[in-house]
């Protein structure tokens, strides 16, 4: 019996394996990953510093433990080089692997900014626990001159979370972003302003409305020059400007791709018996055929459960119900349900303050509630707002 093969041992790959094993106790599962296959919670990367968590402490189970738990073969340190969808074979840098069903769960890659300067290659990004280990090592290895100042490129979700976390750990932090407010793409302006104030009170310096044009070596430090002419010294530069789905294997295999690997409402790619899941996938709604990239935990879990049933022969549509984005900024915690981009230019935000909490509701041009944002949120309040959104939508 040929196995179900999963490329990638991140949250998407392991979740799919778990869900499939619940349904089928005997079918072989093979997971192939270029890293060591250890399991960790990726969302914890952006708030581990203030908790003094090392990379090893973030790992909850080793690859061997995961293999035993889900009764799967986990092949680590092995890179998939080609997918032959016609022959149903994977080529790796070690051997070939035949499959009955294939799931691509390779995630996304950090976006690299075109920055000039002699130290541009020293910009770090954190997209994996090994990246976090490198970041901590870089900070802790500067014994002669301890790290005091960290610059973060990007004031989006991950940039704000890292800024809050690092400031909470005692570092001076500067955040650079071309938008005039943090979380501008997700937040109501009232919440962005309040987050700006909270981060500033935390000690974070926000250089907004500009970008970093060059990063140069300057003795023991780095020199960051901004497009507005300002320049300052820093010890480390961390890029948090976003991720881009990893399409390398999909393109080489002639799968249909757009922003991500295009999948239908069951998670299947343009090739029979080949599926994609997680940050690399571009999901298609079974309701209106619209496509979306959803780099969040809730849709990943929903898709994994549906694909597992489809692999069993129980064709199941991925029911991507909206879920709030939780922003882990302890100085100003937020839950956000951003409105569709198409409606933001014509709709409006209504702001309500209830005791210490700010609630923002977005109404489109027809007066229909299409999104919300809330500070200092609790599960009960989020549930009520979701119910309100579904009723009005």
Q: Helix- and strand-based class?
A: alpha/beta
Percentage of residues assigned to helices: 10-25%
Strand ordering within the main sheet: 5-2-1-9-21
**Rg, Å, rounded:** 22 Å
Terminal-residue CA separation:
47 Å
| Poorly predicted parts | none
CATH class division of the largest domain: Alpha Beta
Q: Describe the sheet with the most strands.
A: 5 strands, parallel
**How many DSSP E strands?**
28
Percent of residues in beta strands? 25-35%
Number of domains: 3
Shape: globular
Instruction: Please state the second-level CATH architecture of the largest domain.
Output: 3-Layer(bba) Sandwich
Tally of helical segments: 9
- CATH topology annotation of the largest domain: FAD/NAD(P)-binding domain
Give the name of the CATH superfamily of the largest domain.
FAD/NAD(P)-binding domain
Mean of pLDDT:
92
At a glance:
The chain is α/β, with parallel strands linked by helices and 393 residues long. It has helices at residues 11-23, 55-58, 63-70, 129-140, 157-168, 189-202, 248-252, 297-311, 379-392; strands spanning 4-7, 29-32, 39-40, 59-61, 73-75, 80-84, 89-92, 96-98, 101-104, 108-110, 124-125, 149-153, 172-177, 204-208, 212-218, 221-226, 231-234, 236-239, 243-245, 261-262, 274-276, 281-284, 291-292, 325-327, 334-337, 348-354, 357-363, 369-375.
């Amino acid at each position: 019996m040929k196995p179900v093969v999963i490329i990638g041992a991140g949250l998407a790959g392991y979740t799919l394996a778990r869900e499939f094993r619940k349904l089928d106790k005997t079918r072989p599962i093979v997971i192939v990953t270029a890293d060591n296959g250890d399991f960790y919670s990726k969302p914890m990367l952006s708030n581990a510093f203030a908790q003094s968590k090392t990379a090893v402490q973030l790992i909850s189970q080793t690859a061997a433990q995961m293999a035993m738990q889900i009764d799967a073969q986990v092949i680590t340190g092995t890179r998939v080089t080609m997918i032959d969808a016609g022959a149903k074979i994977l080529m790796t840098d070690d051997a070939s692997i035949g499959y009955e069903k294939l799931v691509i769960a390779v995630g996304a890659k950090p976006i690299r900014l075109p920055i000039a300067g002699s130290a541009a290659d020293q910009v770090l990004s954190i997209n994996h626990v090994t990246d976090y280990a490198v970041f901590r090592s870089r900070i802790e290895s500067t014994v002669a001159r301890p790290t005091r100042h960290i610059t973060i490129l990007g004031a989006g979700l991950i940039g704000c979370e890292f800024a809050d976390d690092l400031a909470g750990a005692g570092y001076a932090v500067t955040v650079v972003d071309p938008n005039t407010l943090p979380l501008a793409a997700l937040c109501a302006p009232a919440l962005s302003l309040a987050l700006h104030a909270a981060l500033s009170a935390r000690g974070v310096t926000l250089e907004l409305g500009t970008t970093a044009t060059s990063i140069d070596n300057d003795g023991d430090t780095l020199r960051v020059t901004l497009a507005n002419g300002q320049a300052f010294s820093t010890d480390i530069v961390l890029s948090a400007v976003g991720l881009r789905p990893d399409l390398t294997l999909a393109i080489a295999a002639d799968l249909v791709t757009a922003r991500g690997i295009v999948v239908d409402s069951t998670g299947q790619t343009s090739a029979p018996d080949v599926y994609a899941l997680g940050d690399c996938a571009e999901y298609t709604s079974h309701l209106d055929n619209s496509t979306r990239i959803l780099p969040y935990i809730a849709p990943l879990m929903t898709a994994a459960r549906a694909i597992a049933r489809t692999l069993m022969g129980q064709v199941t549509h991925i029911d991507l119900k909206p879920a709030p984005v939780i922003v882990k900024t302890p100085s100003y915690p937020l839950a956000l349900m951003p409105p569709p981009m198409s409606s933001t230019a014509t709709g409006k935000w209504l702001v309500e303050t209830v005791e210490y909490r700010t609630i923002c509701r977005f109404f489109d041009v027809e007066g229909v509630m299409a999104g919300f944002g809330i500070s200092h949120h609790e599960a009960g309040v989020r549930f009520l707002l979701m119910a309100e959104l579904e009723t009005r939508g």
